TrEMBL record:
Record keyword Transmembrane helix present: no
Gene3D superfamilies according to UniProt: Bira Bifunctional Protein, Domain 2 (3.30.930.10)
Name by which UniProt lists this protein: Amino acid--[acyl-carrier-protein] ligase
InterPro entries given in the database record: aa-tRNA-synth_II/BPL/LPL
Any one GO MF annotation of this record: aminoacyl-tRNA ligase activity
Alphabetic keyword roster: Aminoacyl-tRNA synthetase, Ligase
Organism taxonomic ancestry: Bacteria, Pseudomonadati, Pseudomonadota, Alphaproteobacteria, Hyphomicrobiales
């Protein structure tokens, strides 16, 4: 990763919270009406002002990739359970998955459900797994669709995605939501093609975030694979340089927040989905993910909760 050696963020890059009674960043976002409480940690409404930033960041990502000829696809925030099962997500992240369950009883079961509800007892007995699962990452619904088209063309394929994603990781850090939007570009082809794509986006993403006045560091990273076997997978991923994150201090300097991630899956999805290069060999894939809420929150944390008072250069980049 030439030019992207691990860096460190110096203390002092995070503005102090306002003086007076200390309020958490999350509470300040609620107070300012930017996020709206639902009673569940990590599940929030967003104000119009918040959304105007999300949309502007999304547009920036579109602009950066405009010359590349990516095919834009949008999926609803759920995917077929059969595809989810085959994807391998449950091997790595059983704790994060969100499955959709629906009532499948008769009228007596319905009466029982209502009685349980009334009594404050568990009413979920007759709920059964449906054929849909919530999307865990924007690129997950794409691989089976691409594989069904047959072999890749010689120069591979490039897709542009955006989706709400679900991960069951309730948290008081506003940057760790249960439902959030991920903008992604996904490249499929030879190892050389997908690695060149990732290198290019490391540069583009870094320039974009620096241009928004955010302090950042690009660091090797790993996914939080579940359990003891997961620890080995995580170490391999990190040591082989398969995942990099662009971190910005938002909640703290010590634990900065991954706002973009750059992932090389090697032949994992190619093997899983039978995705082939033009010559019949297994396709490699890579994706770059922009966390739209996280980038928005990083901007709010560094430039303040009043968008009108953001630096002119930043406003210009976002809204022209
Ligand atoms: P983290 O290490 O912080 O959990 P991650 O490795 O799980 O992040 P990815 O799986 O690479 O993140 O997801 C792509 C992008 O989606 C991240 O770079 C981040 O910006 C965003 N993202 C991931 N999880 C969340 C979340 N719980 N809430 C908001 N944004 C998220
Ligand atoms: Zn992805
Ligand atoms: Mg995570």
């Amino acid at each position: 990763m030439d030019g992207f050696a691990a860096t460190s963020l110096s203390p002092g890059v995070l503005p102090d919270d306002e003086a007076g009674e200390p309020r958490s960043f999350l509470d300040r976002l609620f107070d300012g009406g930017l996020l709206i409480r639902t009673g569940v940690d990590g599940l929030y409404g967003r104000s119009g002002a918040f959304e105007s930033v999300v949309e502007a960041v999304d547009r920036l990502a579109t602009g950066l990739g405009a010359e590349d000829g990516a095919e834009a696809l949008r999926f609803p925030p759920a995917m077929a359970r059969t595809a989810f099962e085959r994807s391998g997500y449950l091997k790595g992240f059983p704790n994060l998955a969100g499955t959709v369950h629906c009532f499948c009883g008769n009228e007596a079961d319905h009466a029982n459900l209502l009685a349980c509800l009334e009594a404050g007892d568990d009413w979920t007995g007759k709920q059964a797994a449906s054929e849909v699962v919530l999307t865990p990452a924007a690129c997950y619904p794409l691989y089976p669709v691409a594989a069904a088209r047959g072999r890749l063309p010689a120069d591979g394929l490039l897709f542009d995605l955006q989706s709400y994603c679900f991960r069951h990781e309730p948290s008081l850090e506003p940057t760790r939501m249960q439902l959030f939007r991920m903008r992604e570009y996904v490249r499929m082809g030879s190892p050389e093609q997908v690695l060149a794509f990732r290198e290019m986006w490391l540069e583009r993403g870094t320039a974009m975030m620096a241009g928004l006045g955010l302090p950042l560091a690009v660091d090797p990273a790993n996914d939080p694979f579940f359990g003891r076997a997961g620890r080995m997978l995580a170490n391999n991923q990190r040591n082989q340089g398969l995942k990099f994150e662009l971190n910005v201090p938002v909640n703290s300097v010590e634990k900065p927040t991954a706002c973009l991630s750059f992932n090389y899956h090697q032949d994992h999805f190619g093997l899983t989905w039978g995705l082939e290069q033009a010559d019949g060999s297994v396709a490699h894939t890579a994706c770059v993910g922009f966390g739209l809420e996280r980038i928005t929150l990083a901007l709010l944390r560094h430039h303040g909760l009043d968008l009108a008072k953001w630096p002119a250069a930043v406003r210009e980049k976002l809204w022209g």
